[in-house]
Amino acid sequence: MAISHPRLLKWFASRNPFFVFLKIMPLIISFVWIVFNSEIRNLYGLHFFLLGIFAWSFFEYITHRWLYHTIFNNKKLKWFLDAFHIHHHNNLTDYRVLNAGLFLIYPLAIFLWLILFLFTSNTEMASWFCMGMLAYYFFYENIHYFIHYKIYTTGYMKFIQKYHLYHHYNKWNKNFGNTITFWDKLLGTYDPEYKQFKITKEIEKELINH
Ligand SMILES: [Zn+2]
Ligand SMILES: [Zn+2]
Predict the structure, then answer these.
(1) Where is 82: in which H helix or E strand?
(2) Which ligand number lies closest to the CA of residue 92?
(3) Mean pLDDT throughout 16-25?
(4) DSSP characters for 160-176?
(5) Is a pLDDT exceeding 70 seen at residue 40?
(6) Burial 61-82 (b: 16+ CB within 10 A, else e)
(7) Which of the ligands is closest to the CA of residue 97?
(8) In the chain, is it the N or the C terminus that has fewer CB atoms within a 10 Å radius of its CB?
(9) Is 1 contained in some domain?
(10) Could you say which ligand is closest to the alpha carbon of residue 165?
């Protein structure tokens, strides 16, 4: 299934992590501005920043497992979701859909900022939380892009590439985490067989096509 509507790509996808960075800049500037203009009330900013990182790692898991890989009865919703993630599964070298667009992180960051503000009345803490989430979100987008961009032979990138490609090539219902294995292990979708996954010459040719 190809994506034919450029407006869909414009709002829901990004060409590469650089464009992701440009898109999230206004959010980052806003949160930094709020923090710098707040009275220093306490030193818990870092805790909320780390909590934001943790929150995105969970959000990354739940969207992949329960949104992108769920078969919805609503035809329009199904078509829309399939046009991105399932299309990605079936067309690994379509770089247009490797990264998300404005309509993933903006509603989430603004919604969570408002919720935190409502519960704590603290704009500084809500902003630290969202900055942590944005930082890890940007990391996630880079990881997903570069996993599909070149072959890695050592370190974290080798491990996470095998982990993600096993999800693509072997089991679509396992290993949903894109940056960590924690949520898969906790929620019963971790498959250690990924360690045996071999990137053959055919896979390499299919994967790296740019
Ligand atoms: Zn992928
Ligand atoms: Zn998937």
Answers:
(1) none
(2) 1
(3) 95
(4) HHHHHHHHHHT-TTS--
(5) no
(6) bebbbeebbeeeeeeeeeeebb
(7) 1
(8) C
(9) no
(10) 1
